[in-house]
TrEMBL record:
GO terms for molecular function: oxidoreductase activity. InterPro entries: NAD(P)-bd_dom_sf (IPR036291), SDR_fam (IPR002347). It comes from the Bacteria. Belongs to the short-chain dehydrogenases/reductases (SDR) family. The keyword Oxidoreductase applies. This is SDR family NAD(P)-dependent oxidoreductase. Keywords: Oxidoreductase.
């Protein structure tokens, strides 16, 4: 894996990719580089105005890119269902569950879920389940890549209080939602392996990458000093969104990626070329992953075929 870069992405002609949160940050870079290598890319974005601007910029950077913009709000399960229903493609080769929120003040989704758990995990759980028949239809090479974080080490999901209703702490809630991403990938991998199918479920994380995630919570609360502090840390310590997208792109396209792999920067949890990453022991716990799966099916109403 040494020195792997976007130039090493294999030819993607004839493949269809869905990338959530493709209008900014590592989602934008992921979508652009897949399009550069010939994939048809569906830009799944919550904000249509920002999505249109991102699509135009991507077309300027990749002339001839095969792109389609579609509205998807992961914090609204009706939007997730509408997105899948209106998706014209009968096969999806690649689903990149990239969109997410970080360390927000306590908020609820349209369906009443804690915002970070609801957006980062439940929205993608529902989306993946509803798209699974189209991923299976794509045949060998289909992959689901779910973007987690090194901050999953902050804690795992508490089965007694999956949404932190009793004592909300924004960073712990974020870490738990990212552990949920890994538990989801683990359980999906187990189920795909058991059925003998060809769909691969893997996870990735960008390390410390400079995106708008770090400043969104502070901006939402009007904490200018906190927002400026996050911007300063991004400038001093973070790698670029270009580099932060490499683990996602590697997980999505590289040969040798295995079921339930977790790909991140080589310098663990921070920066560098893509490599298999360390992960907390609890993200490979079969009982915990099965329990979260059952809760997720109940909350979303999505049962995997």
């Amino acid at each position: 894996m040494t020195g792997w870069s976007a130039k090493d992405i294999p030819d993607q002609n004839g493949r269809t990719a869905v990338v959530t949160g493709a209008n900014s940050g590592i989602g934008y870079v992921t979508a652009r580089e897949l399009a550069r290598r010939g994939a048809r890319v569906v830009l799944a974005c919550r904000d249509t105005t920002r999505g249109k601007a991102a699509e135009q910029l991507m077309r300027d950077q990749v002339p001839g890119a095969d792109l389609r913009l579609a509205t998807l709000d992961l914090a609204d399960l009706s939007s997730v269902r509408a997105f899948v229903k209106e998706l014209p493609e009968d096969r999806v080769d690649l689903l990149v569950n990239n969109a997410g929120v970080m360390a927000l003040p306590h908020r609820r989704t349209v369906d009443g879920f804690e915002m970070q758990f609801g957006t980062n995990h439940l929205g993608h759980f529902a989306l993946t389940g509803l798209l699974l028949p189209r991923l299976r239809a794509a045949g060998p090479g289909a992959r689901v890549v779910t973007v987690s974080s090194g901050l999953h080490l902050f804690g795992t999901v508490d089965p007694r209080d999956v949404q932190m209703d009793h004592r909300y702490r924004r960073w712990i809630a974020y870490g738990r939602s990212k552990s949920a991403n890994l538990l989801f990938t683990h359980e999906l991998s187990r189920r795909l392996t058991a059925e003998g199918g060809s769909v691969l479920a893997v996870a990735a994380h960008p390390g410390y990458a400079s995106t708008n995630l770090q400043t969104a919570g502070a901006r939402m609360e009007g904490r200018a000093w906190m927002e400026r502090g996050a911007e300063l840390l991004n400038r001093l310590l973070a790698q670029s969104a270009e580099d932060g997208a490499l683990p996602s792109l590697y997980a999505a396209t590289a040969a040798g990626v295995r079921q339930d792999d977790f790909i991140g920067p080589r310098l663990q949890l921070w920066r560098g070329a893509p490599a298999r990453s360390v992960r907390a022991w609890w993200t490979r716990d079969d009982r915990a992953s099965a329990g979260l799966w059952a809760v997720s099916e109940r909350l979303t109403g999505v049962t995997y075929p």
